Amino acid sequence: MADDTVVVWDEALLGYDMGDHPLDPVRVELTMALARELGVLDRPGVRLVKPAPADDALLTRVHDPRYLDAVRAAPRDPLFAGFGLGTSDNPVFEGMHESSALIAGASVAAAEAVWRGEARRAVNVAGGLHHAMPARAAGFCVYNDPAVAIARLLDLGAERIAYVDVDVHHGDGVQEIFYRDPRVLTVSLHETPLALFPGTGFPDETGGPGAEGSAVNVPLPPGVGDAGWQRAFHAIVPSVLRAFRPQVLVTQCGADGHRLDPLADLHLSVDGQLATYRALRALADELCDGRWVATGGGGYALVEVVPRAWTHLLAVATGEPLDPATLTPPGWRELAARRRPGHEVPLRMTDDVDPSYQPWQPSGEPTAVDRAVAATRKAVFPLLGLDPHDPRD
Questions:
Q1: Beta strand segments in the chain, E
Q2: What residue ranges are annotated as transmembrane (predicted)?
């Protein structure tokens, strides 16, 4: 296997543009500009690959053909309604099918490069549209590119795929699509569905008949910061992945758990997000011979957070992590200020937060995070042959 990293990129990916909407493609534009100016994309072994749109044969591995017809037709019909389209969350826009299919194709290209041994890791920061359902748009997502990429991996012969979602919102679409498929383990850490869209992702959602233990959900209370989030991540994710023994790791790396994100209420830092990316790469190295397909996802602090978080993701995927004390380049600051006037443009790649944590233990006075961890371990660990009370599991 080549020890290269593929970064799937084309400026046409910025065409997934819902207009005056929280999911603004400027977050992807500024990410790629920052990564380029910091030299991340010019590292040895990094290859930029231009994607092709996913065709109907790929998309219908996940989506209903009638839904594809609706996505194509909606921009031509000003009165169109149905399939979750034409809402404030999922407004209809020109070229909706084409831009959505291109994002799905980009995630498929990343998955193919990794599975075929052309690269050890691959990244599509424009992807991660994890809420789309088989026949319905949801949560700013038209086509579910992580699910399409996973379906493609299955078709190529993968027998065990782990999907880990660290977006602040539950990865409901991917879970729903593979809920009865024991070949796919879906793991999601997110803010509690009692407080946040989409209202799913409780610990007792553990997989359908014949796939018991294939869904793992860790709902966290509002206000959790880096230490609590890392505590929960390390109390659940390594154990379930080691029990499942995946051949490839697919991740959705939404940056909306950050304390500055306007749509949610977790209090993570860029430093904590970097720690998570490093942990995900380490798990891919340990369990999957390095095979890691990473996508972006949510993130609505368009200047302040997302470009730094995903540039850290790209750096971890392409080699050595960036020093958090690194200054953002003046040229990038000028671009960010020009593209989004009035936003505070960060000067450094850090929030000056130490993301260290105390490992979870089943004894002592439990915190709200500990109770969330215990609920998840109790619900799913026995289904995977793990002891929910043993911190070594």
A1: 5-8, 46-49, 121-124, 161-165, 184-191, 215-220, 248-252, 292-295
A2: none
